Amino acid sequence: MLAVLLAAGAAALAAGAAGAEDLSVLNQDTFRLLDASRRPDAIATALAAIKDAEIRFGPDRPDVGEALSSLANLYRFEGKYDAAEPLYRRALAISEKVSGAEHADVAPHLDRLATLFRIQRRYAEAEALLKRALKIRETAFGADDLELYPSLENLAVLHQAQDQYAEAEPYLRRALAIHEQALGRDHPQVAESLHELARLYRMQGRAREAAQSYDRA
Hints:
- This protein is an all-alpha fold.
- It has 11 helices and no strands.
């Protein structure tokens, strides 16, 4: 059954890319296959489709970059960090070339590479990328926009991974304030931010503050 699914997906990729010159099928069908199976033959199908798209449309299309990132995600989930890193880096380079180094589209690629570095405990490299992503989002959207949340969350997670709770707290508090301002104090996303802050307080032994945040959430 899996072989039939893989073959059908590969055929759909070739037909879709050839007909519409639209690589969205690359992300839709190839990575549906990757979700269906983590086996090497699924990875091979994705690699073949990406290579075919590069030949047809050139190596610097944004959709090719997204496909590379998705494949890198799969390698990361499997612990194949050495295979994931060059794909993340290439996807980032494509985004910088197409959109410009300070464009908002670049920020998610920085986030993904930083996540890989955090898992590898390359904390200084991860922090530099995440701070760059935050600055890009602040410039593009302003200091109080919901679009800043991924950067704030990632920086908080990075510091918590290093037991740097005091450094993590300002990012979580800022995320909470942004959610309250943009969504209202009773929005479910505000509750999620309160939970994250409460967990941080609990890890610091600040039981009373943790309880207050949990109760409000």
